[in-house]
Design a protein that fits this description.
The complex is a heterotrimer. Chain A is α/β, with parallel strands linked by helices. Chain A has helices spanning 45-56, 85-96, 135-145, 151-157, 170-182, 187-206, 225-235, 248-267; strands at residues 7-13, 17-23, 29-36, 63-69, 81-82, 102-106, 111-117, 120-127, 215-218. Chain A folds into two domains: 7-88 and 247-267, Nucleotidyltransferase, domain 5, CATH 3.30.420; 99-241, Nucleotidyltransferase, domain 5, CATH 3.30.420.40. Helix content of chain A is 37%, strand content 19%. In chain A, strand 7 (111-117) and strand 8 (120-127) form a beta hairpin. Chain A is elongated. Chain C has a four-stranded parallel sheet, sandwiched between helices. A four-stranded parallel sheet of chain C has the order 6-5-7-8, sandwiched between helices. Chain C is globular and about 65 Å long. In chain C, 55% of the residues are buried. Classes of the chains: A alpha/beta, B alpha/beta, C alpha/beta. Chains in contact: A-B, A-C, B-C. At the B-C interface, helix 6, strand 4, helix 7, helix 8 and helix 17 of B face helix 5, strand 4, helix 6 and helix 14 of C.
């Protein structure tokens, strides 16, 4: 079974960034690229795919099976199948950390809690309605305070104490932070409060799953050391962070694609590839 | 709650012993529980069930009140999160979520949680729910079945429409239904507690309850005076003794009598509840921000006297039950009268919502209110549903304006006292304006 | 499609209910609007009045209702009230509401106050199922009868009422027959189409509805345009769904909705009214005790010194196990409208029960708007992937 060399790809079309990961015939990563998703969650995704293919030195036809995931996963003309990012993240996390039983993923516009058993997703919670507790909270703060998104974490780690941000809503929180600044509270302390608010919110959401160790933290926001720290404090124990927290979804999708393809081959079935076109999707599904 | 050096509101001296008696409710329940006596968790049932429990020596604790206590002590958050983690949607009654979270924690810990305010609520031997006014008040207790195996009884209180209640035989039919249910409740209690009801004792307890409320009603009638001698803050502090039957009705009656005397003396000497002159008389609907009552002090400094509040908290208008010998029938008539007492007048006035909404048309007129503060609550639909209609009716029929200030019963961050105070001046202008219009139209105030 | 004339007619009525109401009025019928499942239809039918279920419109943004009802209440009821304030229920000759949930009860008074329909009656349905409550319910129905008689200008005879009970029971039996066609794999009719048929029945006089239903059943048995086989066979439980958007979203995934426990669905039609000597006895019992909606307080045995939680769950929800068995359900969608308390309190308990059966379930809260569907789609799809009935 493992003698069959089959390349697979996973495409995670997030609301802002698309991540593509291609696995080689042994199931190891051969290419990883991230780029802007573009308008309507798809317009530039094909360019990212093209880049990844270039990096891997492969053509689209040479990929045995392709799974799309993420917000823009529906109707991707160069994918064979679409699977939710919940299932894909769980798969990717399990692969990187076989001891994982809980995963927390904070992206640009949503946050997810995943319950993982035996390498599979068994339950989840999701917040995709409210900006508080997502990367958006950080983005808006950076804008409001005239800072770069990347510096927020660093700056907040300098604080010796933190200010509590009471507002649960992003909009009110911005006003609250500006007010605190004008009262002379140090910027680092305010930012520390902000990071704590995000951690608080996400951990609270995840408690519905009865959190069990090991806990893995992924997503774009996992690159912010202060959020990682705040989550550790909130949980009262350590969390694991992958080296490349952005790619767990795409990795999971590519691994699932490999699983599916190998299963078909073992059963003597055809792999259900679709007719793929490396172009932007023209249809935008309502849901 | 902090020492009020300036004290813009003249708090009644007689409020303090009442408050102390009420606060003792939690300790009394804990003591009873430790002594192996039965303890009931009750929903407010407007005197249908509580006198019966008291006559059978069952200690009562009120999770609705405990929700407000936890919120005021800043202890609610952990319980709310616990309830949500257990799958209860976040929009539901804050008191319910607080209680569900508290109960889950109590069962998990195996005893009253050490951090619980006021010593906590002991594990109950029974749950007494009521369908009056809102569904949460029996669905919540039903949901407690996940954590507690205490038996549950749901009291029924008919909620007829105005026209339907006035149909021939409807009132009596409703009352018979309530009385019959109360008989069934007593059978249930006798089986559970393994003893019989002492009907003489029940008779006395019912009498004492009505006597207590008669005095409480008289106390509140005195507030019609100008200036109003008793501020809503004193009402809210004193009302749990009646509504929650937090103590023995005999003891409470004595304290309400003393309160009556104190207020009568103020009325005779034209002493108002405010240090400042009474510039505006207001009504407050419905549940106040328990954790931020200092807010009213700041309004008091501006001469805002809150003279009347939530209809649901008030005792019924007096009812002559002397010729009714059966205590269950007395309770039935009394409770039904609490809900539907205003229906005939509502019908005459062409109003269709005879409880919760119509009574304010009388309150505002009888207490000569210049304005109304409406306090919509995010997680209490029951206390919020009627507010738009009330605002509308008060304006159309009585030319009395309303000020809307939002909040919640447990999420204390939603109430912004600073923002509310910033609207005070503008609302004063509005109240002045409508006062003029009322004068021109020949209204009495 | 020429073969599916009944289905087409049902769909046309579903899409344009007020047109149908207008036609009925032109025939000289009096149309009485009712909210939810508790107003007793048989009593209206027996006096030649046409009961017409009041529903909302998910496509109409709510604008007028905000003046009378706060935004933090059931969006379905807000929508219905909003439509009335926009004169979309102008054609009703009267309105009947019941104490189904506390928001519906309060809305009844608001509706009565702001819309002043020519006839209005509020049935204060009790909350419990004890015998005393059933007696009270019967007494309330007698009062309802009085005002109906005033409206109709004649007395309601027991014979006519018994006939009406038969006619409505016949329709119930036909609905169960239609639902039976969802038992095969794949089901012969989709969940979305079933809902459309239900809505059309709630917009027609009972006999006309039954004739349409017979036609639909014949067509469904014979046609081969039913839904394709899909790995997931789901049951949907919860708050009222008066339009098919949520169901269509679910059926757009790898699932067929083969059964429901909602009130524009099986809750409305299960079970029959028993044929009692005094028909009001059967009606009072069926509409209070047998109609299964969480607004009614049901418990196994109050007199036990200590509650047995599992026994209580079985008493309250055991019928779901029957549904799951007969319709071969392999997953359950629990949904409630935002702000729906009666279903909200119930969710963890229904989940406990389904867990004890080993039946997987997911809870969705939704907003009564089409925009709200996109995030729900991901959740439902992830649920299907978890239970192994996904795309792959």
């Amino acid at each position: 079974m493992n003698k069959v060399k089959i390349f697979t790809a996973g495409i995670d079309l997030g609301s802002t960034m698309t991540k593509v990961l291609i696995l080689d015939g042994e199931g190891k990563s051969r290419a990883q690229v991230t780029g802007a998703t573009g308008a309507e969650h798809r317009r530039l995704a094909n360019k990212v795919m093209a880049q990844a293919l270039g990096q891997a030195g492969l053509s689209l036809e040479e990929i045995g099976y392709i799974i799309a995931t993420g917000y823009g996963r529906v109707n991707v003309p160069f994918a064979d199948c679409q699977v939710t990012e919940l299932t894909c993240h769980a798969r990717g996390v399990s692969h990187l950390f076989p001891s994982a039983r809980t995963a927390i993923d904070i992206g640009g516009q949503d946050a997810k809690g995943l319950k993982i058993r035996d390498g599979k997703l068994v339950d989840f919670v999701m917040n995709d309605r409210c900006a508080a507790g997502t990367g958006r909270f950080l983005e808006v703060t950076a804008e409001t305070l005239g800072l770069r998104l990347e510096e927020l974490g660093e700056l907040s780690l300098k604080a010796t104490s933190k200010v509590e941000i009471g507002s649960t809503c992003t909009i009110f929180a911005q006003a609250e932070m500006v007010a605190l600044l004008s009262q002379g509270r140090p910027l680092a302390e305010i930012l520390a409060g902000l990071h704590q608010a995000i951690a608080s919110r996400v951990v609270k959401m995840t408690r519905g799953l009865k959190i069990e160790a090991d806990v893995v933290f992924t997503g774009g926001v996992a690159q912010n050391a202060a959020v990682v720290q705040a989550i550790k404090e909130r949980l009262g124990h350590d969390v694991l962070v992958p080296d490349e927290p952005l790619f767990t979804g795409a990795l999971g999708a590519a691994l699932l694609a490999r699983e599916m393809a190998l299963k078909c081959l073992a059963n003597g079935d055809n792999i259900p590839k679709k007719e793929r076109r490396l172009e932007e999707a023209s249809l935008y599904e309502d849901y | 709650m902090a020492t009020e050096k300036k004290r813009p509101i003249n708090r009644l001296k007689t409020m303090y012993p009442l408050r102390a008696l009420i606060d003792g409710m939690y300790q009394r329940a804990l003591t009873a529980s430790r002594a192996g006596q039965p303890v009931a968790w009750c929903m407010v049932n407007w005197w249908q069930g509580d006198p019966i429990l008291k006559a059978m020596d069952v200690a009562t604790v009120y999770p609705e009140d405990y929700g407000a206590v936890c919120a005021a002590f800043g202890a609610a958050q952990a319980y709310l999160e616990g309830a949500e983690a257990d799958g209860f949607p976040a929009h539901m009654c804050g008191y319910a979520r607080n209680c569900l979270g508290y109960t889950a924690r109590m069962i998990e810990v195996g005893e009253i949680p050490p951090e619980a305010p006021m010593g906590g609520m002991p594990q109950p031997s029974l749950l007494l729910a009521s369908g009056a006014l809102c569904d949460a008040r029996y669905k919540w207790f039903q949901a407690l079945g996940r954590y507690l195996d205490a038996p549950l009884w749901v009291l029924e209180l008919p909620h007829p429409g105005v026209k339907e209640a006035l149909m021939v035989g409807a009132g009596e039919g409703n009352i018979n239904f309530i009385a019959q249910q109360l008989g069934e409740f007593i059978s249930f209690l006798e089986k559970l507690l393994g003893r019989r009801m002492d009907w003489d004792r029940l008779d006395k307890t019912v009498d004492n309850t009505m006597e207590m409320n008669r005095w409480w009603h008289r106390v509140n009638e005195l507030r019609r005076a100008r200036p109003c001698p008793m501020h809503s803050r004193d009402f809210w502090s004193s009302m749990p003794a009646s509504l929650y039957m937090a103590a023995d009705p005999g003891e409470t009656t004595e304290l309400y009598r003393q309160m009556y005397d104190e207020i009568k003396s103020r009325v005779d000497n034209k002493i108002g509840a405010l240090k400042a002159p009474e510039r505006y008389r207001l009504a407050f609907l419905e549940l106040p921000p328990w954790h931020s009552l200092g807010f009213f002090n700041q309004l008091a400094e501006r001469g805002w006297n809150f003279v009347i509040e939530s209809w649901a908290y008030h005792p019924p208008q007096p009812l002559d039950l002397d010729r009714v010998s059966d205590p269950l029938e007395r309770l039935a008539r009394y409770s039904y009268h609490w809900l539907t007492g205003y229906y005939p007048k509502a019908n005459e006035a062409g109003e269709r919502w005879g409880y919760f909404a119509y009574p304010y048309l009388e309150y505002v007129r009888d207490y000569q209110c210049d304005g109304v503060v409406l306090h919509p609550l995010l997680s209490c639909r029951t206390a919020t549903n009627h507010l738009m209609m009330v605002r509308d009716r008060l304006m159309k029929k009585l030319k009395v304006p309303s000020l809307v200030i939002e909040g919640d019963i447990v999420d204390l961050k939603l109430f912004d006292p600073a923002r509310a105070l910033s609207q005070a001046e503008a609302f004063e202008e509005t109240m002045d304006h409508y006062k003029k219009l009322r004068k021109e139209a020949g209204f009495g105030w | 499609m020429a073969q599916d004339r009944g289905m087409d007619r049902a769909k046309a009525i579903y899409q344009n209910r007020s047109q149908r109401a207008g036609e009925l009025k032109a025939q000289g019928k009096q149309v009485i609007g009712y909210l939810c499942a508790y107003p007793v239809l048989e009593m209206m039918t027996a006096l030649d009045l046409v009961p017409f279920r009041i529903l909302g419109d998910i496509k109409e943004p709510i604008s007028r209702a905000d003046a009378c009802l706060p935004t933090v209440v059931c969006p379905f009821i807000r929508s219905a009230l909003d439509l009335a304030l926009k004169d979309r229920y102008q054609f009703l000759d009267g309105v009947v509401m019941a104490h189904s949930c506390d928001v519906a009860e309060k809305t009844a008074h608001i509706w009565h106050s702001y819309l002043r329909p020519p006839y209005f009656h509020f049935i204060d349905t009790p909350h419990t199922t004890r015998n005393s409550a059933v007696k009270q319910h019967k007494r309330l129905l007698k009062d309802f009868q009085k005002t109906l008689e005033q409206l109709a200008g004649r007395q309601l005879s027991q014979e006519r009422l018994k006939e009406a009970v038969k006619a409505h029971n016949q329709q119930r039996a036909l609905v169960r027959e239609l639902y039976g066609l969802r038992k095969p794999d794949p089901p012969l009719i989709s969940g979305a189409e079933t809902l459309e048929v239900m809505v059309s029945l709630m917009s027609l006089p009972v006999d006309e509805g039954s004739r349409l239903l017979k036609q639909v059943i014949t067509e469904v048995r014979q046609h081969n345009s039913g839904p394709p086989k899909k790995p997931a066979r789901l049951l949907i439980w919860g708050s009222i769904m008066d339009n098919s958007s949520l169901i269509e979203m679910i059926e757009g995934l790898s699932a067929n909705l083969v059964m429901d426990d909602t009130c524009v669905g099986s809750r409305f039609y299960w079970p029959d009214v028993a044929a009692t000597e005094d028909p009001l006895d059967g009606l009072a019992h069926r509409y209070l005790v047998e109609l299964k909606c969480p607004r009614t307080f049901r418990q196994a045995d109050p007199n036990k010194a200590s509650k047995d939680y599992q026994a209580d769950l079985e008493y309250r929800f055991g019928y779901l196990m029957e549904y799951a068995k007969e319709w071969r359900v392999n997953g359950v969608i629990l949904q409630s409208l935002r702000y729906c308390d009666i279903h909200g309190y119930e969710v963890p308990q229904v989940k406990d029960y389904l867990n004890s059966l080993g039946l997987p379930a997911i809870y969705l809260e939704y907003d009564y708007s089409q925009a709200a569907l996109a995030p729900l789609r991901t959740r439902v799809q992830a649920f299907l992937e978890i239970i192994g009935q996904g795309n792959f």
